[in-house]
Specification:
With 372 residues, the protein is an alpha/beta fold. The protein contains 15 helices and 13 strands. Helix 4 packs parallel to helix 11 (254-265) and helix 5 runs parallel beside helix 6. The structure holds pyridoxal-5'-phosphate. Residues 26, 82-84, 108, 154, 158, 186, 188, 215, 217, 223, 228 line the site of pyridoxal-5'-phosphate. InterPro entries: Aminotransferase_I/II_large, NHTrfase_class1_PyrdxlP-BS, PyrdxlP-dep_Trfase, PyrdxlP-dep_Trfase_major, PyrdxlP-dep_Trfase_small.
Length: 372
């Protein structure tokens, strides 16, 4: 199996060490070890035995993860090295060449690329409006049939922050049930809904052939721990994923699981702080885009730490972002690497230094050649 290039990650990798501010990361403000551990807990970490851990993952972590789901127990949760490992493992253990997969697009690259590399037949569920990334669930339902093996989606959506309603989620589940298809629901940004947005139930709570994937990277700002999880009531799916891993990482590293478990104790408090920051940054972005409406048009998000902005300069978004990086040392992701219109920019709303990045972007826009 040959994996294709990963344009989003390649973009980040090429910019590594070259930017001072990011206006595009999808995570919330990163926490440090001392934000998570008090003195006593730092001692516990210092004395933590570093022998092999358990195959299923740290019990305390799985318990606190399971509490996020209405119908799950700790044994319905498997801990992995980030949501990325969950995606790869799930696709490898459940899909075969020729399987029909209905998948939202644009979507975080590996969700589609892994299924494609396995040789699946990919049927894309595209937005009704490619610039705002609004999705119509009735078109997804029309794409499904008796051959559908798997339905894949991500809400709150990366990069647009668009959502669907709970009724729409239920109609996707009913369609999956009708065709006996699995659902893979990427819920990395769940719990970061804006105040007026609905919060969807996790797919694994409403369907027993659904997998929910989430983790601590985005919502808690702990991407460096590389902790994510697969949550499902389906024991066959869990068993396949667990046994595949005997050939890869075997289990997830113990110190990071311990740190994630400690952070989960302060879960509500961290999320409240992160939601507040997102709302604050979104207000700044709205004002900024109004001030620069000659060049920028914000398509407001409903949930999550990201939004898309349409830029109408004489540059493509790739050129725009490259110049911004070279001239102002600010990181922005162009639509092209997300598989959307290259007039769009992905804006990350989760970071503390957002206004500093905006100031640099302002300087950059002021240097634009005047429109004819
Ligand atoms: C929608 C989505 N799913 C999964 C991931 C992978 O997350 P992790 O860093 O936990 O592997 C990302 C990372 O950007 C993402 O945006």
């Amino acid at each position: 199996m040959e994996l294709p290039a990963f344009p989003l990650v390649q973009w980040f990798a090429a910019a590594e060490g070259r930017f001072e501010f990011s206006l595009s990361h999808s995570d919330c403000e990163p926490l440090s070890v001392s934000d998570i551990l008090g003195d006593a807990e730092q001692k516990t970490l210092a004395n933590l035995p570093l022998g092999y851990g358990t195959f299923a993952g740290l019990e305390e972590l799985r318990q606190s993860v399971a509490r996020q789901y209405a119908t799950l127990k700790q044994d319905d949760v498997l801990i992995f090295g980030g949501a990325s490992e969950v995606i790869y493992t799930f696709m490898r253990t459940n899909l075969n060449p020729g399987d029909e997969v209905v998948i939202q697009a644009p979507i975080f690259n590996s969700l589609k690329a892994t299924a494609q590399a396995i040789g699946c037949q990919i049927i894309e569920w595209r937005p009704t409006n490619e610039l705002t990334c609004e999705f119509d669930v009735s078109t997804l339902i029309d794409l499904c049939n008796e051959q559908t093996k798997l339905i894949v989606f991500n809400f709150p959506h990366n990069p647009s922050g668009q959502m669907i309603s709970e009724d729409e989620l239920i109609s996707i589940v009913e369609t999956a049930q009708k065709y006996d298809a699995m659902i893979f629901s990427d819920e990395q940004f769940r719990l970061l809904e804006l105040p007026e947005s609905p919060r969807l139930p996790p797919a694994c709570d409403v369907y027993d052939k659904a997998v929910s994937v989430a983790g601590v990277s985005k919502t808690l700002g702990l991407g460096g721990l590389r902790i994510g999880w697969l949550a499902t009531r389906n024991r066959d799916l869990l068993k396949r994923a667990r046994e595949y891993r005997y050939y890869t990482t075997e289990m997830t590293n113990t110190p990071c699981q311990m740190l994630a478990a400690q952070a989960m104790k302060h879960h509500d408090e961290i999320l409240t702080r992160n939601r507040k920051r997102i709302i604050h940054n979104l207000k700044q972005l709205q004002a900024f885009c109004l001030r620069h409406k000659q060049y920028l048009d914000l398509h407001p998000p409903q949930a999550g730490p990201m939004a898309v902005v349409e830029q109408t300069t004489s540059f493509t978004s790739t050129e725009f972002c490259q110049r911004l990086l070279d001239e102002q040392r600010v990181m922005l992701v162009p639509g092209e690497v997300m598989g959307i219109s290259n007039r769009l920019l992905r804006i990350g709303l989760g970071r503390d230094d957002f206004s500093k990045g905006l100031n640099r972007l302002e300087t950059f826009l002021q240097s634009m050649p005047a429109a004819n």
